[in-house]
Amino acid sequence: MEAYRTILQANGLSIGYHQGKKKLTVAKDLNFNLEKGLLTCILGPNGVGKSTLLKTILGILPAISGDIKLFNQPLEKYSSQRLAKTIAIVLTERPPGGNLTVEQLVGLGRIPHTGWLGVLSQQDKKKIDTAIRLTKIEPLRKRRMGELSDGQIQIAMIARALAQDGDILILDEPTAHLDLANRWEIIHLLRRLAQISGKAILMVTHDLDQALENSDQLWLMPPQQEMIGGPPEDLLIQGKLDLLLPTGSLALDRETGKLFSAKSSRLPPFTGSPKYQKWAKNFLRKIPHSAIESFHLEDNPFSIQIAIHGKTQYFESFEHLRFFLLQH
Fold first, then answer.
1. What is the DSSP string of 241-294?
2. For the whole model, what pTM was predicted?
């Protein structure tokens, strides 16, 4: 894989809609670099312009102002056909054509190269085979789309986008309607594809946990503020992710990356084994605990020791501790 390099770049970009002679700006002064070989996630509340940004990158909407460049050329210089060969997109909608086989669906990714007649060359067939291999859906190759689960369909759609063989892969909330296991599988697949194929992968998501753990870059779009970009670890430690949270109601634990109620009581000091401290904190944030003066954990065998009202209490499980706290 080639070294990281910028494929898409924006400076002072304002995005929105043209209504006759009027311009409705949704977001302004956006600056970003989309880099080859990285999985980049866009995070932000509804209404800040995430979908509008994708439409602008895809050339569907013209920019209100500023510039956006693809391979250092203004985006408006690209024809729709050339853009289709450079940028592939995966949406959350279930694809039409339930009678298509997975192989036929993946083959549709070659349309920008073959035209609607769809006559596949040996090179096209190799691209299809590679996309199926990379997404590990060879066992599904001859299955019809109507027979697949939602997770399998989404992976097949990603394979179709890979067969398109653009430099950029864009996904709009690809895991929105999937269960936990399928969400995990999709995000790890995308990270692996970015590393193996060297493509720039850009994904809109509301899944903060997965974005923090698996993305290489985050683009934060806080309401009424400039876009902020960087590695998720930096943005977490610097407190930048807090800009996405409702003021006064939620907070983000910088040690675990987990959300909790900002009105929760301060956690007591922890001692002993660190092995289960994350889950002890998770437990305490769900139950009144302000009287606890200290919290000690042992892991072999597991036990909990707390100091409360000047006395020491011992428990064998969180269930026993919860019962005690609710009684006191």
1. GGGGSPTTTEEE-TTT--EEETTSPPPPPEEE-STTHHHHHHHHTTS--TTEEE
2. 0.81
